[in-house]
Amino acid sequence: MAVLRRIACLLLAACLAACASSERITLLPSQDGSPSAVIIKSARGETVLDKPYTTDTIASNGQVSSLTGEAGAVRERYASTLSALPKRAAVFLLYFDSASDVLIPESQARLEQIKAELAARPAPEIIVIGHTDTVDTMAYNDALSLKRAETVKRILVSIGIPAERISAQGRGKRDLLVQTRDRVDEQRNRRVEIRVR
Questions:
Q1: What total number of domains does the chain contain?
Q2: 146 and 100 in a common domain
Q3: What is the pTM of this model?
């Protein structure tokens, strides 16, 4: 009996060693399509994993091997894991008339699309960030950007989003979408970003 127990323990140890002999890391594409990468450090040095759907396997001795897979095969292999991930964030941009918190007509029309996206999320977390162009002073632009964010927050609350799920902030002219000199009237910088998670 003791010999059988010892053999069973040896088999279990061998199985555990074989199962734990490697780690696998697969790089998925970033949400917005921008390049991404992971640096893998092992006993044999560093490897950069920078191609979507590539899997690096790290053996127990630190040896790293790479295999580029197909998107469908990776999704199938990790289907249960991917289905458990939270829904990807959505970002919407709304634009404003110059020196005001009034939406331009095209942005007013986008509110229905935003409403539909929010309805598809059971408990959305929303960040509303106001921006301005560079026409006025820093203090004026800070106040105007916050006013724009608060206006959009009120609109979202009016369509049924609880106010406590929405945070609003103003960035003034700090994060320009289009880089300009001071005192430039640029429509694309007069915006509010709505980030929905």
A1: 2
A2: yes
A3: 0.65
